[in-house]
Amino acid sequence: MKKIIFTSCLLFGLLLTFNTSSHAQEGRIQAGPGLAYGGEAENLGISLDGYYTINEEFRAGAAFTYFFANDLYSSYAIDLNGNYIFHNEDELMAYGIAGLNIFTYSWDSDVAGVDDSESEIGLNLGAGLEYNVDFANLFGELKFAGLGSDANQLVLGAGLRFDIQ
């Protein structure tokens, strides 16, 4: 687990060291709630994410998603992502997603007969759209999460991001 946390912090730190350019969006911080559906978890989840805009092409962020428990197990995911912004005109932004996914699930002893939990670490790869409405940015994302691990899944997410700074 220490190795996962160290790798996650290192990746996030590297994303923040990109060369920044002078642009109105530089230094922008956004955060907000969302909903997600995980194909492997087979459940709806709630999420909270935050992003820091590095420059007009890159931003870095983190997200926590809790998937509602079913009868056998509960699960959550932590994502550390970088976004490459390839379209940002008018009110619409389109971006690619690449990053790290830590997926943890645990079994309930009352149902499964055993108490256990496991974590898997993998890569994220996907794309998203963000549309500026008056009070926030509405976003939708489709990504393959946990690539290279036993917990890989297709995740569909949507929510709102509010300007913090």
Proportion in β-strands: over 45%
What is the CATH class name?
Mainly Beta
Q: Main beta sheet, described?
A: 8 strands, antiparallel, barrel
Placed side by side, the strands forming the largest sheet appear as: 1-2-3-4-5-6-7-8
Q: Could you list the spans in which at least 5 consecutive residues all have pLDDT below 50?
A: 1-24
Shape: elongated
Structural class per helix/strand content? mainly beta
CATH topology: Porin
Total strands: 8
Helical content (DSSP H or I, runs of 4+)? 10-25%
* Rg over C-alpha atoms, rounded to the nearest angstrom: 16 Å
The whole-number mean of residue pLDDT values reads 83
Individual helix count: 2
Report the CATH architecture: Beta Barrel
Q: How many domain regions?
A: 1
Organism: Fodinibius salsisoli
Protein name: Outer membrane protein beta-barrel domain-containing protein
InterPro entries: OMP/PagP_B-barrel
Keywords: Signal
How does this model look, in words?
- With 165 residues, the protein is mainly beta.
- It has a single domain, classed as Porin.
- Helices cover 12% and strands 62% of the residues.
- Strands 1-2-3-4-5-6-7-8 form an eight-stranded antiparallel beta barrel.
- The longest helix has 15 residues.
- The two termini are 32 Å apart.
- The N terminus is likely disordered.
- InterPro entries: OMP/PagP_B-barrel.
- This is Outer membrane protein beta-barrel domain-containing protein.
